[in-house]
Amino acid sequence: MDRRTFVGGSLSLAGLTATGCSLDLPDIAVPELGPGNRFAAMLRQIEGEANGTLGVEFIDVTTGQSGGINRDMRFGHASSFKLSLAAFLLARDAAGEINADKLVRWDESDMMRPSAFTREHIDTGATLRDLARATQTTSDNPAANILLRELGGPSALTGFWRSLGDETSRLDRYEPEVNLVPPTEVRDTTTPAAMARTVSKLVYGSALPEAQRAELKSWMVDTTTGLRRVRAGLPKDWLAGDKTGTGLTPGTGGTYIDIGFVESSKGGRFVFAAYFRPAGTDSTYSRAHEEPLMRVGEVLTAFGRDRKRSDQ
User: In this structure, what are the phi and psi dihedrals at residue 28, rounded to the nearest 5 degrees?
Assistant: First the structure.
């Protein structure tokens, strides 16, 4: 059986977990789906064939039902923290605590790759809002560091997560040190379960007022770094937005990340957090290591297309 036949086959939904609410999902550790659940089996097959560790959580935000594997395993954020950083700026602006249209400047000492936006604007500066958008859509590292400084540093972003009820996610360092996360590291990490619920609150919950939610979603849709990851496994007529991360710590095998939201053509709304850590110690970037995340998109498609879950 090839993988597309496997993903598209009939689905048994016994064992799906329901949190019993929508939008602001409770921040609890949801038990991993049992081995008899078809979605967990699909993800385990992907993990095995990819020769690595796959951590996934996806949630139907209308019903609160969810699926995944290795949900409470810690993975590094790499650049995926930048979604929450952009949201943090929008939240503080909405609360009147900071002016998102404040002009800030930087110099050569701030520069590192990738830096297309900050390099282009090094002589003129940019607003915090523009930096947030560049941080999200292009993963500009200097933009992220400048914005993080203006907002109070890594501990302030961790505090933002705590205000959302996320007691797991943490940020401890700036770019590029944030990527130095071997498998035993706790700093600069999260779990699929925690981050999927945080994404739900940012995109569909009460973490941001409506206008700021719409702005953040538009930035996520405009982000192109994830087009070969989860979004590549989704139907073309489904709306999706995301933020990726790629942590290539020498000697660890690296970590490939994608977090975001999906809206199906039938009106379903879903969020996901997916992490893949290849086996071995070769941390050279490989497009082949993005394929497991694309296949997660195929499983999410199957999950989203099954409309019988609401009564189970």
Answer: -125, 155
pLDDT for 20 beyond 60: no
CA–CA distance, 214 with 262 (Å, rounded to integer) = 14
Q: CA-based Rg of the chain, rounded to a whole angstrom?
A: 19
Q: How far is 265 from 273, CA to CA, in rounded Å? A: 21
Is-contact 14 38, C-beta < 8 A? Answer: no
Distance CA 214, CA 199 (A): 14
What is the Cα–Cα distance from 211 to 48, expressed in whole angstroms?
42
Q: How much is the average pLDDT of 108-127?
A: 97
Which of 286, 302, 259 has the alpha carbon at shortest distance from 50? 286
At residue 310, what is the residue type?
S
Prior bond of 26 cis (ω within 30°): no
Map residue 299 onto helix, strand or coil: helix
Whole-prediction pTM: 0.89
Q: Clarify whether 79 is annotated catalytic.
A: yes
pLDDT, tens digit, 9 for 90 and up, residues 263-301 = 999 999 999 999 999 999 999 999 999 999 999 999 999
275-138-157 Cα angle (round to 5): 65
**Which residues pair with residue 103 across a beta bridge?**
127
Exposure letters 32-65 (e unless 16+ CB within 10 A, then b): bbeeebbbbbbbbbbbeebebbbbbbbbbbebbb
CA distance 122 to 107: 6
Within 10 A of 306 (CB to CB), how many other CB atoms are there? 19
Q: Is the dihedral of CA 57, 60, 64, 65 positive or negative?
A: negative
Q: Is 80 exceeded by the pLDDT of residue 311?
A: no
Of 79, 80, 115, 139, which one is the catalytic site residue? 79
